[in-house]
């Protein structure tokens, strides 16, 4: 079975830049031009930040049946490791050429659609084609590959259209603070305009004033795709914001007071989305109303000894979730906890036990524990650690930073004389927390 | 490193340590010319955002990605302090 690469009319606007628009026909035309430059058969490592440049690169590769690889972040070391692990790969980049990287091939993305563009026929893509491999950094040291087939990408986008972008009317423009390389960003800012009646702002604003300027630059109705961290910063910065029809937040739990404040100040509604790289967007709720989570169409949940498993016809396989869910008879659910070992920072999922193993593996570290403090005043969910060592903590952090993603580095990392281990060597969570509080206040 | 910081730089260093929870780091330990991100203090993009919010609250200066000198602004404590001092409302 095949299905078309996009489902928009040739003249529909898919992307809006500061001084240009990109129609479906122009996107296809630009992708056709870029496809001619692709080394045949090569995997494409797409590090473009601009949404249009990212989309042209993706569409060119998918229509040439060449796989797209998305690094877990844009740190040069991460991208280089991915290039090294993929012989013959082609790096497609934007303004930031990442000059230090060694790639078998490199191409500058197409940054503007050509002036005149003939109507292009829409390529058909095999539903079983492996289109995207999104890497998640995890805490294992080596990134995990999440394979996305055309069937999954296409159906997932249509499902998102029914809920995330459902019930909206008019010429919607999406402004997003999340990178296209992250599954949530890929679904909502690159795949969405291929199938849903909306356009996406090509910029990726980051600082609150940039987000405000990007929203100001587009006409209503506006949708802001963001994360709890970005939304919190936007509210705290106290910048003037135009009316936003819907704010969509994902990657971490959204504090209800931030949802309420956003709705009081500038947003008609804040929709919180739950999901993971393996499932894509899975459920949603109106956070400010204290609603339970409602599954997106096509998804179902089953439970087995406390573990929840999500499945849907378009997913390659059923997915075991890392949260403990309490499901009601109507299929709605509440998240009652996270599987004890797992944590999430900035949309990246890590394992405490794996991080602890990395910490213990550092020369000179005699004992150590990585944990999520119970009384942390930061709500980004960073992990903390205590370590028994004669080495300076900076040296331990430096070694740890070579094997784990930056956001997983414990903060603070405190040096202690010993850990409160029981007679059998076990660490009691409460005792760890008490020692940590005592150390911090000393 | 002690004594190397101007009074403005020390205030900025304090704001960085407080807002980013860098316990174990004394403001005077921060090398005013060392990189804040990547190496040096190893700050990341979440920190950049939190720091931007703290700076807006304390100084009324909003950092923007568009600023020509943005790459420069966060390059060191000294550059950050200079930018904020030059742009804050007097």
Please, could you describe this protein's structure?
- The complex is a heterodimer of chains A (442) and B (90).
- With 442 residues, chain A is an alpha/beta fold.
- Chain A has helices at 24-37, 51-63, 76-84, 150-163, 183-195, 208-217, 228-237, 256-265, 352-360, 393-401, 429-441, and strands at residues 2-4, 13-16, 21-23, 44-46, 68-70, 90-93, 105-108, 124-126, 130-136, 144-149, 172-176, 198-201, 222-226, 244-249, 267-276, 280-286, 294-295, 300-304, 307-311, 319-320, 323-327, 333-338, 342-345, 348-351, 365-371, 384-389, 413-415.
- Chain A has a nine-stranded mixed beta sheet with strand order 3-2-12-11-13-14-15-16-17, sandwiched between helices.
- In chain A, helix 7 links the parallel strand 13 and strand 14.
- Chain B is mainly α and 90 residues long.
- In chain B, helix 1 packs across helix 4.
- The longest helix of chain B has 15 residues, at 45-59.
- Chain B is globular, with a radius of gyration of 12 Å.
- The A-B interface holds A 205-210, 213, 229-230, 233, 236-239, 345-346, 377-378, 380, 382, 393, 397, 401, 406-407, 409, 411-414, 440 and B 20-24, 42, 44-46, 48-50, 52-53, 56-57, 62-66.
């Amino acid at each position: 079975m095949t299905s078309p690469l996009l489902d928009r009319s040739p003249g529909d606007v898919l992307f809006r830049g500061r001084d240009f628009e990109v129609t479906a026909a122009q996107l296809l035309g630009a992708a056709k031009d870029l496809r001619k430059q692709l080394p045949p058969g090569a995997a494409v490592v797409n590090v473009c930040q601009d949404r249009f440049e990212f989309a042209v690169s993706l569409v060119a590769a998918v229509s040439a049946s060449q796989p797209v690889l998305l690094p877990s972040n844009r740190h040069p070391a991460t991208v280089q490791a991915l290039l090294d692990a993929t012989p013959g790969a082609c790096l497609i980049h934007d303004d930031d050429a990442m000059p230090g990287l060694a790639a078998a091939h490199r191409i500058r993305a197409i940054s503007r659609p050509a002036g005149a563009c003939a109507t292009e026929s829409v390529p058909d893509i095999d539903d079983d084609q492996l289109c995207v491999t999104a890497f998640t950094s995890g805490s294992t040291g080596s990134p995990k590959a999440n394979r996305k087939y055309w069937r999954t990408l296409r159906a997932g986008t249509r499902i998102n259209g029914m809920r995330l972008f459902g019930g909206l009317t008019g010429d919607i423009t999406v402004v997003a603070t999340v990178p296209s390389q992250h599954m949530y960003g890929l679904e909502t800012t690159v795949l969405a305009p291929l199938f849903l009646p909306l356009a996406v702002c090509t910029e990726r604003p980051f600082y609150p004033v940039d987000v405000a300027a990007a929203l100001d630059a587009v006409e209503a109705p506006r949708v802001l795709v963001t994360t709890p961290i970005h939304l919190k910063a936007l509210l705290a910065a106290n910048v003037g914001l135009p009316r936003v029809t819907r704010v969509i937040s994902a990657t971490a739990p959204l504090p209800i007071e931030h949802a309420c404040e956003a709705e009081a100040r500038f947003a008609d509604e804040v929709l919180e989305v739950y999901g993971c790289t393996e499932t894509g967007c899975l459920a949603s709720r109106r956070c400010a109303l204290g609603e339970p989570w409602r599954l997106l169409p096509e998804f179902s949940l089953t439970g087995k000894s406390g573990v929840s498993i999500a499945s849907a016809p378009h997913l390659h396989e059923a997915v075991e979730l890392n949260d403990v869910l309490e499901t009601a008879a109507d299929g709605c659910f509440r998240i009652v906890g996270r599987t004890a070992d797992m944590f999430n920072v900035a949309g990246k999922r890590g394992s405490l036990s794996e991080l602890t193993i990395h910490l213990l593996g550092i020369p000179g570290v005699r004992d150590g524990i990585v944990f999520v403090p119970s009384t942390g005043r930061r709500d980004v969910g960073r992990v903390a650690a205590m370590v028994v060592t004669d080495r300076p903590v900076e040296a331990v952090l430096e070694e740890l930073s070579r094997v784990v993603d930056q956001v997983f580095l414990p903060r603070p990392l405190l040096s202690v004389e010993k850990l409160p281990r029981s007679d059998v060597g076990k660490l009691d969570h409460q005792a760890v927390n008490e020692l940590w509080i005592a150390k911090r206040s000393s | 490193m002690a004594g190397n910081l101007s009074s403005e730089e020390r205030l900025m260093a304090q704001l960085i340590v407080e807002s980013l929870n860098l316990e174990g780091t004394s403001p005077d330990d921060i090398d005013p010319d060392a990189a804040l991100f990547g190496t040096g203090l190893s700050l990341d993009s979440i920190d950049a955002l939190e720091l931007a919010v703290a700076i807006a609250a304390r100084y009324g200066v909003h950092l923007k990605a568009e600023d020509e000198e943005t790459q420069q602004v966060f390059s060191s404590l000294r550059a950050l302090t200079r930018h904020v001092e030059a742009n804050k409302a007097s």
